[in-house]
Amino acid sequence: MWAISHIIILYAATLLRGTSGENGNGIGSHVNNTQPLTVELFHSLHRIGAPAVSPDGTRVLFTQVHYIEEVNKSATFISMVDIASGETVQITEDRAGLSFNNPMWFDDATIGYMHNGTLYQSPLDGEASAVFTPPVDISSVAFRAPSLLTFIASVHPNSTLAESRELKRAAANRRDSAQVYTNLWVRHWDKWMTLEKPTLFAVQIDRKEDGWAVGTETDLLQNMPLCEDPLVRWSVEDYTVDLQGEHVAFVVRRPGHDMAWSTDVDIYLTPTSASQPQLLT
Fold first, then answer.
1. Count of alpha carbons within 13 Å of 241, Cβ hemisphere only?
2. How far is CA 224 from CA 20, 172, 240, 256, 276, in A?
3. Integer Cα distance of 80 and 95 in angstroms
4. Where is the signal peptide (predicted)?
5. Residue 150 per-residue DSSP state
6. What is the pTM of this model?
7. Which region among 80-94, 172-186, 240-254 has the lowest average model confidence (pLDDT)?
8. Which among 22, 5, 158, 156 has a CA at the least distance from the CA of 87?
9. 3-class DSSP state of 260
């Protein structure tokens, strides 16, 4: 049922996109033709990402992903829709092999997004500039005015981003790939567990005349139970920051040596300035 419902939604989105007028940006007001759902049509559908609403509540950023059969690659680009008028404009380049994702708002006139591992900010009427290039890949990036940045990164236990980068490089140069497991959660679906854990971080960023100043990141999960045990491979699945940027609530499988036998998922709360996780559920 899940797959069927998503196919129907995506097919409807494609039909709307096909009747959206000259701009072809993926949003239309009516459907005036139908066609069979073929494999080729299914793979051409634009998949819509989660919305990011502007602080003043008038506009929404979202990603669109589509497959380009001729070159066997996908493209991910960011669009913006005006809530009142429904007018949609394309913000970033739409080209095979390029990916612009994780859209966010710095303020009502400035957006941000991730591209090639770097966080960029761009005025709606100006040029983009780099804000933060972390040592390792990050995801689920969020900004809270005036200067708080939060994100998830897979790092080694009790390691900074830079330290984890060096550990990953050393592991890549090993002459063997042996791994010892002492608990039963050794593989999640089709991926073997590694020593890295998806971990929640916060960092202060401040705009200066010559660019952006990025502070030292804070590991917000450092004091989670069994955090320093590299063989307990829990991971953060989702999080949200309060409007003041003072606290963050995150969803995690409760750490334990018997995690393979448990589906227990909990919500923790911690200040964004230090790791003081409090179990809420």
1. 24
2. 49, 28, 18, 11, 8
3. 17
4. 1-21
5. E
6. 0.83
7. 172-186
8. 22
9. helix
